[in-house]
Each structure stands twice: as C-alpha cells, then as structure tokens.
Inverse folding.
C-alpha cells in the first residue's frame, strides 16, 4: 500500500534512526514515536532498548502514516505486502476461512508468528491461539515492528518465524476523528471505517489517559459477481479449463456396484457424466467475506514517583462475520425404496433388479445437492476482551523493574443454517405405502415426511423442513499472563558503552473450550463439517535473561563491536515438559559506514490447546485418487496397489468417484504432541555511507530449520505414501499408510481418510532480505512551497529454498516449495517478492506510488500435468495523494491495483475461487478516500 515520505520495511530501526538517515522529520516519523527521544526507543526483538543496542537480527517497520495512506481499513492488507510475509487467511478466505485475518512470516504458518501489542501477548480468536488482526485497533497504532528469526528466548513460545509487534500511541492529547471508505471499480465490496481517538494528560503531565472507538462495515462479494469465479473450473486433461464442480448434484448421483447414474426430474435415470453433470457450487460462495466490527480500547498511566509508574490498558472487540457456501452435499450409503412412487417405471425396474435380497430396498451410495434447503450460512459473533494492569519504575543504581498481569478472553458464538440431519434423511428415504396407498415414512416419528431426492427440485418444502436442523456452536479461549522483570541498561562499561542485562520470570495459562451443537458432535449433521468438542488447557512457568555487551569501540577496524545473548527456561504442564531456548548475536562495524551482523537462535512452538485437545472433525481437502487415472490400468505397480485396496479391476482408470477433486477426511488433535524446535541463522550487512547522506542499504541471509513439525501429513501426501507417484513408477513408499485411506463399499471412493496431527516431518528454508532507501531534499517546490522532498525505497526477499517434508519416515516425499504453488505447497512461494515506493512531497501535497512484484511460480506436483503449470510474474501499482487542507485536517484519495490486474485463473490446482485470492488481488481496481481531523 501507499505512504508519503514514510517508507515501509526498514531493516533495523536503530540504523534508520541514526543521523545519516534521519534527513527529515517526516522520514523519522516512521521509525520513532514523535514524543520519544531517540536514545529511549525500545526496539522489538530485545527487552533492552536504546540507540546503543543496534539489533543483530533484521527488523521491518510500518508506520501509522503508512497505514493511514494505504486506503486499507484492516491491518492484514498492509502487512501482506511486506516481502517477508506470505499471505495467510484474509477477507477473501471463505472456505477455508472463518472471517478472521492472520499473518504468516516466511510462509511457516500463522501459528509460528507471534503477535504482540506493546510487547505483550494479545487476545487469540480461538483455541488455535492465533491473533485475529481484525482485533488490532488500527487507528491507535504508532508503528508495527516485524522481527524475523526465532525470538523464543526473548518472548517465549510461537516466535519461530519471528514477531509482529503493534506499538500503540502513548501520551496522546486532543481529539482525532478519522473516516475511510473504499469501493471496487465494479461497484461492490464497499468498506467503511470510522474511528475516534480521545486523550489527555492529568496530574501536571504525570499521567495520561487515551480512549479509542472504532467501527467497520465491509460488504460481501459473491463469486458469482466476477466472471472469472462464477463457474467452478477444472482441467479437462487436454490442456484446457472446462466447467466443473461437485459430483454431488441437484438431481442425485447414485452409485451401485461402482456404476454411477443420476436421477432426472421425472424420476427416471440416466448415465452420470462428470464432464457435463457436475454441480457448479462457485457462484454461491463469498469472494469477500462481509464483516461488522466494533472496537473500543483504553489505556492510561500515572507516575506516582520515579519508583512507581502504574499503567493499564484494555480492549473490547465485537466482530461479526458471515461465511456462505453452496447448498449442502449429502453423501453416504442409504436404503432406496425400489417401489417408490417418486420413481419412474424404468427406475423402479432398475432398482428392483438390483434388490438381491427381495426386501424392497436397495443399498446405494448417493451424492445429492440439497438446493431445496438453501445455502449453508455460518454467522459468527465474536466478542473478545483483554485487560492489562502493571507497574514499572526505577529502583536505584540503574536498576528498573516492570511487572504486569494480563487477562484475555474470546467467546465465539456461531449459528449455522442450511445443515440437515443425516438420521432424518435416512428416515425420510425409507418409505412404504399406508392402507390408502399413499407413500409415507416407514417410521413416522417426529412428523417424518417422505423425501423425494429422485430429480432436481423434487424435495417438497415440508420434507426440506423435516430434514433441516439449526445448529449453534460456541467456543472460548482464555489466557492469563503474569510477568515480572528487572533490568539494568548501564550495569558497567568496558569502554565501548554500557552493558545491559535483564532477568525475568513469566507464568502463562491457556484454556480453551469448544462446545459444538449435539448434531455436530454426534456426527448427525451434514452441511458444515462435523466435529467433536474440545476442553483443555495447559500452563507454563518460565525464567529468562538477556544481556548486551559492547566490547570495543573507536579502534582501528573496530568502530563498534557488540555481542548479545538470551536464554529462557520453560516448564510446560503438557508432554513438552522442560524446554530450553537461547540466542546469541553480534554486530561489528569496522568503520561508521559499514556494519556486519549475525544471529543464532533456538526457538520453540509448544502445541496449542487446539493441537492437543481437538476432537475428530471432517474436512474436504483437494486430492486425487490415483486409481481413477488412466495410468492405473497400464502401470503394474499402481494397478496392484489399487486392486489390493479394494478397487475392482473393471473400474480402474474411470471416474468412479464422480470426478470429485476433494476427498472426505477426518482430522483431530493429539495430546501426546511435543514441542517444535527451530534453529535460525542470520547474517547481514548494513551500509550507511557518510558521503551519501540519506542513503542506506541492508541485506540479510537467513536459514531456518524446524524439527518435530506439528502438522497433519495431508491427504494428498498420504495417497503418495500409499500408492507412490510417477517419479518412482507408482511404487508404494510405505504401504502401511494405505490403512489411513479407507474406501466406500459401494462407490469405492476414498472416504474418511485419517489425517490427524503428529510431530511429523520438518521444514528447511533459506533466503535473503534486502532493502535500499534514499531520501533527498529538493531546492524547488510547488503549491506555495519553495522546497520539496523525494524518497525512494526498494525492498525484497529472495527465497532460495523452502523444503517441506510431510512425513519424516519418508524423506523422498520432501517438497521444495521455493518458486512453487499447488495442492501440497499451498499459496505461491514466489522466489522474488519485491516492493518499491517513490514519494514526492511539497507544501500541503504528498503523492506516493507503490510497486509490488511477485515472480513466476510453477505447480508443485511433478507427477501431474495441469492445464496451468505456471503462473506468470505479477506486478501491481498503487497510487495515493494526500492533501493537508489546513493544520489538523488531511484529505486523501487513492487507487489500489491501478491497472486492474486480474488474478491468474486455474483449475484442479487452485485454492478457491479458481485462483489464490489471498495472494493475487481478486477484486480488481479499487478506489478509496479518507479524512482525518485533529483538534
């Protein structure tokens, strides 16, 4: 997104705040709060702050001005353009989704990025213990610090990829009101935000109180409102994209003995063709999830004496979102009445002929889209609150303390419509005739109404009402943190600067509950994925220390030499038990113009409440049954494996699964999980030539290795383990995994694949982050000014490798996701992610252009040739203009995606909406305007 003279992505705040780069007050605003002296800035990544402690690991910074001029309402849309971030769940995430927004450093997963507010843990949205960025008060943000690299020794669990710390405004006085509205060129997706900030000092400036209110309303966009997403697309096998969809159709597909047929509207039957009969579910799904959010935040502090400064902060957030999916697909084995009056004569003859035991019923696996019931809608009402109470102060001889207690709680209430009861469907399908010859339910309890699934649109309103069940779920997650530390930033001096040290202790308790509706937990519901309840928690007791030692300064070839280290001991009440994390780093500047820095860190991620205690749940990931491929007939190894797992020889190489690209899967937690561990190495250079004032360049190499990776192997990987793939001639890597892939007795499709969590596999990634920036004043101007300013910034990440092994026991399954996308790697891992900005400011006018680049990526599956094997490079341009109408009043206008770049269109290897909507802009050109008034 856009900014004025403030440039996103500073590699180290301490460097950016130095005299060499602080060439204008407007540029400084990005890296330091206005009111804070330069030598008192506390940089994220260390509990010791100040200009003397230049960080040994990279830090990027986003300013409040950056956010204000981006035209974006939610923080997620600012952060996702940082080169270090891979898109995670966003407003475009409908299935999967949930209406939340998360951040993902290095593409290692949102659960491996620790999100903080003012250096402290924030409120999670559920038992996954991940922060929803929607709950961050954007209008209160002073800056956002992004620290890449393991920081568990400093902040504790979850900081494997790094830390995102939202630093809030302090000591605000006055009244500030902001309003923002954005809309797409297509005239949809309108988003309105307004916020009000009130603050003032008291007690002769020794105290301050700030109150903040925020309201956001975002309109939904359906996939049917875009030409590229209104029809589900699939590969045709000949290099083309064709209309596709689900094998669960409006007229009912039924499979008996591996033969697929469908019912027509008059109750007759005909052959089913996946190419022509698949149901188009796409237009009913959201492309942008609607949202309403109210947020209130308050903070205060009061200095009783130099030895006692008390502080408190609190947030209350109500976030309401809605997800919508196409009508429920009912699948499963049922008993069909062979003599039902709903059937045509030909259908009765067919079923009667298949009734081998003569009881009048035929067992069949059916695939019915229940359009008569309506769309599936999930409405989530999420209320979170958080309170912090603490004190800090000077206790003499350079020692200071900080202690606080925080409590956070989120309750989420979900109402689902569009679900049906499996038991009632089965009851309504088992019919007979009463004494008057009327078709009735064999079991008439509960007001049963016969269900006519034999043709599209044939289910009566009474039958639809009988099978429909309302569902309500609730979940809560609570977190308590008690923390205390003492520090001395001037313990002693070796002649190169003061030595700093911190000692601290922390106690944290997490507890989560998920209470699904009985229908969901019992497995009776069909529609949204069924799942069992959750109840559990854990606590952790920790001790930590950190030290920073300037060793030498102002010596030949040693302008500065500093080392730092940190250690944390943690004891978990779970299977993790005792855990040690530590880090060490150094900064060496041979001359003032050049610095070299390096860091090693051991970090951990303890399993979350959801990882440990989640019950079984349904999922429908994208995967292909290899026995449906033509090669299953010709390849002896694959043919043998398919036959051994129950597929009849006559069905090999046919679409006996209805052409489905999703496989029903069972997921769940694991109480025996151990902690993940990671080793991170970074090494970098910082250039600030004194002869070129205002110029800086940073480059940092990183290497991360994660072991004991907490994940499910993935249905696609289980299939590869069982059946092999084209690269090894379809020889099973480990046939024992076939037990995790059971097949339906009638259709022979893989059903209820077992894909639960374990400490399996690992990740290795490495790359280079870099940034060049230059700002210079100009001796000419406009709009009544005789001067102006021009700023340039170019930053990026070069991803060298991203190796993911889903199953530690099978190293041959390791995937190199660098430069790849697809079913296994997921969102594109572009090798080059670039961002550049040019900003010109003169008088009351500021104009800024932002350029973003994603390099080309290729599909991650070497065994399958998809219609779209390569997504070409993508370039986006954003433009904004800000006008200082008068002191305290600013008006901004802008456009995102200036050239209306459309997303790539894919088939079988897409994520959702025929593309990757969190990576590539799915909405097209958008316009925004905003105002800010401060009194």
């Amino acid at each position: 997104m856009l900014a004025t003279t403030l440039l996103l992505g500073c590699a180290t705040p301490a460097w950016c705040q130095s005299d060499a780069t602080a060439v204008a007050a407007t540029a400084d605003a990005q890296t330091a709060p206005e009111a804070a002296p330069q030598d008192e800035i506390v940089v994220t990544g260390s509990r010791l702050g100040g200009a003397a402690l230049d960080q040994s690991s990279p830090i990027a910074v986003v300013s409040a001005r950056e956010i204000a001029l981006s035209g974006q309402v939610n923080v997620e849309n600012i952060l996702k353009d940082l080169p270090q971030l891979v898109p995670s769940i966003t407003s475009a995430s409908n299935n999967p989704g949930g209406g939340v927004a998360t951040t993902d450093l290095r593409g290692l997963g949102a659960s491996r990025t620790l999100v903080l507010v003012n250096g402290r843990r924030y409120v999670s949205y559920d038992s996954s213990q991940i922060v929803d960025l929607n709950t961050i008060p954007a209008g209160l943000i002073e800056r956002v610090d992004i620290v890449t690299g393991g920081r568990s020794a400093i902040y504790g669990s979850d900081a494997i990829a790094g830390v995102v710390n939202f630093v809030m405004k302090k000591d605000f006085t006055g009244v500030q009101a902001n309003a923002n509205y954005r809309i797409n060129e297509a005239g949809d997706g309108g988003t309105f935000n307004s916020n009000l900030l009130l603050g003032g000092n008291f007690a002769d400036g020794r105290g301050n109180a700030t109150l903040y209110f925020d309201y956001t309303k975002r309109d939904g966009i359906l996939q049917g409102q875009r030409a590229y997403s209104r029809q589900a697309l699939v590969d045709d096998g000949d290099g083309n994209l064709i209309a596709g969809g689900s094998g669960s159709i409006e007229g009912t597909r039924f499979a008996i003995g591996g033969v697929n047929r469908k019912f027509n509207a008059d109750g007759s039957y005909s052959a089913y063709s996946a190419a022509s009969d698949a149901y188009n579910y796409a237009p009913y799904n959201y492309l942008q999830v609607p949202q309403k959010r109210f947020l209130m935040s308050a903070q205060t502090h009061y200095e009783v004496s130099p030895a006692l400064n008390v502080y408190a902060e609190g947030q209350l957030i109500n976030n309401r979102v809605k997800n919508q999916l196409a009508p429920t697909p009912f699948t499963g084995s049922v008993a069909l009445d062979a003599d039902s009056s709903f059937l045509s004569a030909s259908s009765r003859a067919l079923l009667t002929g298949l009734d081998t035991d003569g009881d009048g019923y035929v067992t069949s696996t059916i695939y019915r889209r229940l359009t008569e019931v309506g769309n599936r809608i999930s409405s989530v009402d999420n209320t979170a609150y958080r309170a912090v109470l603490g004190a800090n102060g000077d206790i003499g001889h350079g020692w200071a303390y900080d202690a606080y207690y925080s409590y956070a709680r989120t309750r989420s209430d979900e109402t689902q419509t569009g679900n049906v009861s499996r038991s009632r469907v089965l009851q309504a399908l088992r019919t007979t005739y009463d004494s008057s010859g009327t078709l009735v339910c064999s079991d008439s309890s509960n007001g049963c109404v016969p269900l006519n699934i034999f043709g599209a649109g044939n289910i009566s309103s009474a039958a639809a009402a009988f099978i429909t069940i309302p569902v309500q779920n609730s979940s809560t997650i609570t977190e308590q943190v008690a923390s205390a530390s003492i520090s001395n930033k001037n313990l002693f001096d070796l002649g190169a600067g003061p030595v700093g040290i911190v000692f601290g202790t922390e106690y944290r308790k997490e507890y989560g509950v998920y209470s699904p509706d009985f229908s969901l937990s019992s497995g009776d519901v069909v529609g949204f994925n069924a799942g069992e309840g959750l109840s559990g928690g854990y606590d952790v007791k920790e001790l930590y220390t950190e030290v920073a030692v300037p060793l030498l300064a102002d010596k030949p070839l040693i302008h500065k030499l500093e080392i730092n280290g940190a250690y944390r001991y943690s004891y978990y009440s779970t299977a993790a038990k005792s855990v040690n994390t530590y880090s060490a780093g150094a900064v060496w500047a041979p001359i003032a113009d050049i610095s070299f820095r390096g860091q090693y860190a051991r970090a951990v991620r303890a399993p979350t409440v959801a990882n440990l205690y989640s019950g079984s749940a349904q999922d429908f990931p994208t995967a292909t049954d290899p026995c449906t491929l033509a090669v299953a007939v010709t390849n002896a190894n694959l043919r043998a494996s398919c036959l051994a797992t129950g597929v009849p020889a006559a069905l090999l190489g046919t679409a006996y699964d209805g052409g489905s690209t999703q496989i029903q899967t069972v997921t769940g937690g694991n109480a025996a999980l151990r902690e993940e561990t990671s080793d991170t190495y970074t090494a970098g250079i910082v250039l600030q030539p004194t002869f070129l004032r205002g110029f800086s360049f940073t480059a940092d190499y990183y290497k991360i290795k994660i072991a004991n990776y907490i994940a499910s192997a993935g249905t696609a990987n289980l299939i590869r383990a069982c059946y092999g793939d084209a690269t090894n001639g379809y020889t099973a890597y480990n046939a024992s995994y076939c037990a995790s892939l059971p097949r339906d007795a009638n259709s022979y499709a893989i059903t209820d694949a077992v894909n639960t969590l374990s400490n399996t596999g690992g990740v290795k990634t490495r790359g280079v982050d870099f940034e060049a920036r230059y700002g210079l004043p100009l001796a000419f101007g406009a709009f009544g000014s005789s001067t102006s300013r021009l700023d340039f910034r170019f930053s990026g990440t070069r991803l060298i490798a991203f190796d993911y092994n889903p199953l530690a026991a099978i190293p041959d399954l390791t995937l190199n996701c660098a430069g790849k996308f697809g079913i296994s790697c997921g969102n594109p891992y572009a090798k080059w992610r670039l961002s550049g900005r040019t900003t010109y400011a003169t008088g009351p006018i500021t104009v800024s252009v932002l350029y973003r680049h994603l390099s080309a990526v290729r599909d991650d599956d070497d065994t399958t040739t998809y219609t779209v094997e390569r997504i070409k490079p993508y370039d986006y341009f954003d433009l904004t203009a800000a006008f200082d109408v008068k002191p305290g009043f600013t008006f901004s206008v802008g456009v995102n995606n200036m050239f209306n770049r459309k997303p790539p269109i894919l088939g079988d290897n897409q994520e959702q909406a025929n593309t990757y909507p969190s990576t590539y802009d799915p909405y097209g050109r958008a316009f925004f305007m905003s105002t800010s008034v401060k009194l």
